[in-house]
Amino acid sequence: MKILDVKTKEPYQVYIGEGIRKKTSKLMSEITGFSPTRILLITDEKVDRLYSEQIYQVLAEKWPVKKAVVPSGEQSKSLECYHQLQTDAIQFHMDRSSCVVALGGGVVGDLAGFVAATFMRGIPYVQIPTTLLAHDSAVGGKVAINHPLGKNLIGSFHQPKAVIYDTELLSTLPEAEMRSGFAEVIKHAFISDEQFLLQLMETYSIAGLTSSQLSEMIYKGIEVKSSVVANDEKEKGIRAFLNFGHTLGHAVEAEYGYGEISHGDGVAMGMLFALYLSEKKAGLDCDYSSYLKWLKKLGYPTSINKEIKTDSLINRMMNDKKTVGGIIQFVLLTEIGHPQLFSIEKEEAAELLDQWRLEGTSR
Ligand SMILES: NC(=O)c1ccc[n+]([C@@H]2O[C@H](COP(=O)([O-])OP(=O)(O)OC[C@H]3O[C@@H](n4cnc5c(N)ncnc54)[C@H](O)[C@@H]3O)[C@@H](O)[C@H]2O)c1
Ligand SMILES: [Zn+2]
């Protein structure tokens, strides 16, 4: 088992290893000053069928546990599910020393984390991530639900007490979900370290990764994320670097329609565009076509559906939380591993996006 310290104001540890879910209650009881009165175990339907019984039993040996199951998928990050979970917590007589355990991917993590952040003004929670994407979402303390008018609009910052990442759980994850999560690993490499990126580029098939390779990549990805978060917990500065590939990625996701394309597939295209922009605007000297070929080989889409208009994408970017006064913010690289924020005016961004769609996707 590998252990990583997240040095936020209230520090916590991330445990990564094969089969470590069986040690959940031992690891939880070793957290200093932490002795939950009750536990609300929150999971989704698919994960429930696969893993919750085992985790429930392990926790129930030590503490009173109630399990709450939400439907699988993004639609559960809703006010309705949030309300139901608060009801469950109240009816289970949870108190300020009770704890939420989030067993699932980013959806369960964000939802359960927000329940914990707000129940009785905030109680502890522990993340047990079950997707590759959750190496990103389970660390950093951003928790949120969606509003029908936009994603993640209702939320808070609330760091977990611990993250227990059992890589064995990834064995049942569908290939498309693995690819989606792997895009965030790639992102973490691009913004931090060329060596890490070169090592990742030896991967030609995500499905073919061994468990120890995955553990190593997850460890490195979380190391990048946690060091950024520790230096900027509330996203006032450098935390924005984690949005590399996300300005266009989010717009693509929204234009395709949520669920029509995975987050990671959108981010992969967003990263390619960010690299293209980095060459034009940030002086990046890189072998763009090698990244294009590699992402293609891994199964990512590398060009946006022709029916989607550049203007619609630009308008989406204008509505982004990070856009201020008609100027779109992009995280670009001056060198691999060296991110920097760049502001590009709407008209120029549209021109460059058109250019990239024409020439950058087929180099
Ligand atoms: N808080 C953050 O910092 C942060 C960062 C990135 C993404 N997110 C959020 O994360 C969410 C996406 O997370 P996700 O991609 O993990 O999606 P998800 O939680 O919906 O999981 C994807 C699918 O895989 C299933 N699944 C989960 N674990 C499984 C397993 N081990 N075996 C088989 N199936 C399994 C789920 O039931 C679901 O159908 C989004 O809502 C996004 O906003 C948050
Ligand atoms: Zn992301």
Could you describe the 3D structure shown?
The chain has two domains: 2-172, 3-Layer(aba) Sandwich (Rossmann fold); 178-360, Dehydroquinate synthase-like, alpha domain (Up-down Bundle), CATH 1.20.1090. It is built from 13 helices and eleven strands. It has helices at 24-29, 45-60, 79-91, 106-118, 134-137, 175-190, 194-200, 211-231, 246-256, 263-281, 288-297, 310-318, 346-360; strands spanning 2-6, 12-17, 39-44, 65-70, 99-104, 125-129, 142-147, 150-157, 162-166, 327-335, 338-345. The strands form three sheets. A seven-stranded mixed beta sheet has the order 1-2-9-6-5-3-4, sandwiched between helices. β7 and β8 (150-157) form a beta hairpin. The radius of gyration is 20 Å and the shape is globular. The mean pLDDT is 95. Residues 44, 46-47, 50, 72-74, 77, 104-108, 110, 130-131, 133-134, 136-137, 140, 142, 152, 169, 172-173, 177, 180, 263 line the site of nicotinamide-adenine-dinucleotide.
